[in-house]
Design a protein that fits this description.
heterotrimer; A alpha/beta (347); B mainly alpha (356); C mainly alpha (318); B: 356 residues; MetI-like fold; C: 318 residues; mainly alpha
């Protein structure tokens, strides 16, 4: 199945008010070297049941973005958050702690990258899920334990009754991640934020987990934000894709369009870098030269300019805004984007 | 509760050393005010409230705390937020103490030991800075300031002597054990474990049963306390250094075992050992004080902080607590200072070592 | 812990105990002066001294004396005291031991119970005002030797306020209430230094644990602060508390000895110190042996329990 066909099979997101509205979000962290703006003015919306893929390399700020959206990064002694995140109409960062706590694990679930460290090594697998069930729904112990077994079954863990009583180190990587997913889904959240859910897993297991997430999303009708550095993870699984670079979104479009006809030079370079079977053998890999900028002191102008083959003076002088010149929903931030009529294999 | 999940700080190596949350720059006014109030209060309390016992004590403590907070504020403003006033104060105290101990015979101190010469002195006089006996006298009329100073001599000589013995002997044994390994190491290990198998104070008491309480014996007994840890430290460091290239190179050039141990290993093992020794001093001071308190260490009327406290702990404790509190405070300040400086030294020079 | 490892540990313990007992025995044979003279007094006929020496077995070679002594010790006979009233050493120790054990256990419990919430509070807002205050206070308290702490407590609670007694004791058999009334102040004196040490160590360990991902995970589930601290952070950190308890055992015993003497309580501390003072080396020998045995055995048990309690280690051997 090609990516396009996979996409066509996806359930359409529900109509109505957006589930999540992020406006001009800016997260600044205080580090030993000075303030670091990891997320620098990010805006997007997410509808109910929609899947948004956020793609970016390490250091792009995508994890910080995910956590700020959730409210895990808040204004405090070491952090400053500006802009707004509205979830189900409420401002996440204006909420008191108690309200936020009912959101976490309740309306929003989070799946973390490394299931080995995300689980408490001296706590049984079932207990992790049982806790969140009893916290958000007033279930008695017996009822909660039954529900845990159901959830284990839902996420595809074989022999759930036995697994519930095991410790994390007794489970395989894939199973641990399923436990983490069960933890995130336990209270039927409206939004699931999956931060690199497959990075720490074997390749074969990766696909299983992504398929699982797909299936669960279809069954439960929740929205998903899928964060990854790996385009392959996002392809075919997301309705819309946003590409992040150096704290900013550089391109944001529906998945098909983005993969077929990227406009931003960075997106294009990312796609070019993927080796293809159809290409002639012994071709050079098209890696992107250079490395991401230091976010304590990012360059003025377009942040990708230092690494872009097509950069010109205006790129270095002024930072392009994320817009769609045709007023549609394919936005990009580039002074000299890829031509709109180009096909795959663009130069 | 976002602080708990504030992920901006990279995982710090030493969790005890989280970077402090940014404080607003301490107000100059507040600092000056505290210092002034504290300073005046302290002087007033020390001088004007003499002989008022508890009131004076409370006033002195409160004033001292206020003075310290203010002074620390001002010093941070003047010398930068890293300035550690407490460490400087502790260092000053130790310098003062050691200085007084060394110069004791030359100081104009009233009689501290010879009872026959103290017959005319008032007994159990309260501390009063304006009199002949600024820290008071004990139940026999012996001056407490003098006794504290001479007690410092005894305590410091014994403890530092013991640490040095343990350093030299323990270091040597540890290096040998770490170098030769196998049988030597096993034997040394067993002996060390046996020494460690008896709780320290109990060991001291057992030794005190059979040995005469001379300064030399006490120092030897205390050194036994520090010996196992010194051996272990030296051995562990030797083991890690012995793998390094400069040692292998020396051996390859035909250096004999003693030469390798002396010229290559010893200089490297010395620094971590010395910083550990600093921490051990305070442990030994407490051990010596405990022993003297029990009457098994330095014998009265020769003063030691421990036996001075013992003198005051009987019936006279109720009416004249100062006999206990004066040496007690000095003991506390000294142990605190050694502990603090030792801790700071370890943080700076030996960050990876056990924090226990 | 595998059977083989456990057996090896037991052998190690036995060897150490043998060495300790021999060391104690050897040490005591260095007593200056003649025990026969100490018992009979000066100015007697030489044959009388010789008779006493023979009675005490002092004319035998050292090693055979040791073996005899060890043999009797293993059957529970630790000899007879050298000073009036010439009581049986094992009996005296048997009477004194429960007092010391009670104090030691009480102080340990007090220390653990107080240090856990203090450490959690400090770690939760590490670097904050409460944390710094608790740190400074802990550091100050652990610089106060236990006998001094005891005296300060006596000053306040016995002399000034008159709430609690000194130099009195009642056994548990005579009623728990009076017993606690007599035990609380000495136990507190011993516990102060331990509490300060435990708080510092646990706080550092908790701060480390709180950086772990599973804590973030738990927070992201919406679990409250107290729950996360108690249920998630405390468990992994409790192992270092256990280690700390093992390490501080030696100091604890020392503190118990001194504080007992200070409060004039009829425990091992007073027994050992009075005997040491009187030169009664038979009593000291027996007491030191008993204390060493308890110390080594408890340490060994703590080591073994480690392997059992930590599920990561336990399951690995299943």
């Amino acid at each position: 199945m090609t990516d396009t066909e996979l996409l066509a099979d996806r359930p359409r997101p529900a109509a109505g008010a957006p589930l999540l509205e992020v406006r001009d979000l800016r997260t600044t962290l205080r580090t030993a070297r000075g303030p670091l703006t990891a997320v620098d003015g990010v805006s997007f919306t997410l509808a109910r049941g929609e899947t948004l893929g956020i793609v970016g390399e390490s250091g792009s700020g995508k994890s910080v973005l995910g956590r700020t959206v959730m409210g895990l990064h808040r204004t405090g002694p070491r952090t400053e958050v500006a802009g707004s995140v509205r979830f189900e109409g409420r401002d996440v960062h204006a909420m008191p702690s108690s309200e936020l706590r009912s959101l976490w694990g309740g309306r929003i679930g989070m799946v973390f990258q490394d299931p080995m460290t995300a689980l408490n090594p001296v706590k049984k697998a079932g207990r992790h899920v049982e806790e969140t069930l009893r916290e958000h729904q007033s279930l008695g112990r017996a009822a909660a334990q039954r529900r845990v077994e159901e959830l284990f079954d839902l996420v595809g863990i074989p022999d759930p009754r036995r697994r519930v009583g095991q410790y994390p180190h007794e489970l395989s990587g894939g199973m641990r991640q399923r436990v983490v997913i069960a933890m995130a889904l336990a209270n039927d959240p409206a939004l699931l934020i999956a931060d690199e859910p497959t990075t720490a897993l074997d390749v074969t297991v990766q696909r299983q987990i992504l398929d699982l997430l797909d299936r669960l999303q279809a069954e439960l009708g929740m929205a998903v934000i899928l964060i990854s550095h790996n385009l392959g993870v996002v392809a075919g699984r997301a309705d819309r894709v946003a590409v992040m670079y150096a704290g900013r979104l550089v391109e944001h479009a529906d998945a098909v369009t983005l993969f077929r006809a990227p406009r931003h030079r960075y997106t294009a370079a990312l796609l070019e870098a993927i080796p293809r079977l159809e290409q002639a053998p012994h071709l050079r890999l098209e890696a992107i030269e250079g490395s991401p900028p230091d976010m304590v002191a990012p360059p003025s102008g377009c942040r990708f300019a230092p690494r872009c083959r097509f950069a010109q003076d205006d790129c270095r002088e002024s930072s392009p805004a994320l817009t769609d010149p045709q007023g549609g929903d394919h936005a990009f931030a580039c002074h000299h984007p890829v031509s709109p009529t180009a096909r795959e294999g663009v130069r | 509760m976002s602080e708990l999940v504030d992920l901006s700080t990279p995982a710090v190596d030493d969790p005890g050393q989280l970077p402090p949350a940014p404080e607003k720059a301490p107000g100059r006014l507040r600092g000056a005010l505290f210092t002034a109030v504290g300073g005046i209060g302290l002087l007033a309390a020390l001088l004007a409230l003499g002989n008022r016992g508890w009131v004076q004590l409370l006033a002195v403590v409160v004033a001292a705390v206020v003075l310290y907070l203010g002074a620390a504020n001002l010093c941070r403003l003047r010398f930068g937020t890293d300035f550690d006033l407490m460490a400087w104060l502790c260092g000053a105290w130790l310098v003062l103490l050691v200085g007084a101990a060394i110069l004791a015979p030359a100081l104009p101190l009233p009689e501290h030991q010879d009872l026959s010469r103290a017959i005319t002195e008032p007994t159990m006089a309260r501390p009063n800075l304006l009199t002949d006996h600024p820290l008071g006298t004990n139940n026999f009329g012996l001056d407490l300031l003098g006794r504290v100073v001479y007690g410092a001599r005894a305590s410091l000589v014994v403890s530092i002597g013991a640490v040095l013995i343990a350093l030299v002997v323990g270091g040597a044994v540890g290096i040998v054990a770490g170098y030769f390994r196998r049988v030597t190491d096993v034997v040394v290990g067993m002996v060390t474990n046996s020494l460690l198998a008896v709780p320290p104070l109990v060991l001291l008491i057992a030794l005190a049963t059979v040995l005469e309480p001379t300064l030399r014996n006490i120092a030897l007994a205390l050194s036994l306390l520090a010996l196992p840890s010194m051996i272990r430290m030296a051995r562990a460091n030797t083991l890690s250094f012995a793998q390094r290239e400069f040692v292998v190179a020396a051996k390859a050039m035909g250096a004999s075992a003693p030469r390798v141990m002396l010229r290559e290993l010893l200089p490297n093992v010395l620094l971590p050992l010395a910083s550990y020794a600093m921490v051990m001093i305070s442990v030994l001071i407490v051990a010596e004080a405990s022993l003297s308190f029990l009457g098994l260490g330095i014998q009265a009327p020769e003063p030691s902080w421990g036996n001075m406290i013992a003198e005051g702990q009987g019936d006279e404790f109720k009416e004249h607590p100062h006999i206990v509190l004066v040496p007690g405070t000095v003991l506390f300040l000294t142990v605190y200072s050694f502990n603090l400086l030792g801790e700071r030294a370890r943080q700076r020079f030996d960050a990876r070592s056990a924090r226990m | 812990m595998s059977v083989r490892k456990a057996a090896l540990r037991v052998v190690e313990v036995v060897v150490v105990l043998l060495l300790v007992s021999f060391g104690t025995f050897l040490l005591v044979s260095l007593t200056p002066g003649d025990p026969a003279v100490a018992i009979l007094g000066e100015g007697r006929a030489p044959e009388e001294y010789a008779a006493v020496r023979q009675q005490l077995g002092l004319d035998e070679p050292l090693f055979s004396r040791y073996v005899d002594w060890l043999g009797s010790a293993l059957t529970g006979d630790l000899g007879t005291s050298l000073v009036p009233p010439y009581s049986d050493v094992a009996d005296r120790i048997g009477a004194a031991l429960p007092v010391s054990l009670q104090l030691a256990v009480m102080s340990l419990v007090i220390a653990v119970v107080i240090s856990i919430p203090l450490a959690m509070w400090s770690a939760y807002r590490a670097g904050g005002r409460v944390d710094r205050m608790i740190s400074a206070l802990s550091f100050g308290i652990l610089s106060v030797p236990s006998f001094l702490a005891g005296l300060l407590l006596i000053l306040v609670f016995v002399n000034q306020l008159g709430w609690l007694p000194r130099a009195e004791w009642s056994r548990i058999s005579e009623g728990l209430g009076p017993n606690l009334y007599h035990a609380i102040l000495p136990a507190l004196a011993i516990a102060l230094m331990e509490t300060a040490t435990f708080t510092r160590i646990l706080r550092n360990d908790l701060i480390g644990t709180l950086q772990e991902d599973f804590i973030l995970s738990a927070r992201a589930k919406g679990m409250g602060a107290v729950h996360v601290l108690v249920s998630d952070a405390l468990r992994p950190s409790s192992f270092s508390l256990l280690t700390m308890m093992g390490i501080s055992l030696g100091r604890l015993i020392g503190s118990t000895v001194v504080v007992e003497y200070l409060f004039a309580l009829p425990g091992m501390g007073t027994l050992i110190i009075r005997s040491a003072d009187a030169g009664d080396f038979v009593m000291v020998q027996g007491a030191v042996l008993v204390i060493a045995v308890i110390y080594v055995v408890v340490n060994g048990l703590i080591d073994l329990s480690y392997g059992y309690l930590d599920p990561r280690i336990r399951r690995a051997h299943v």
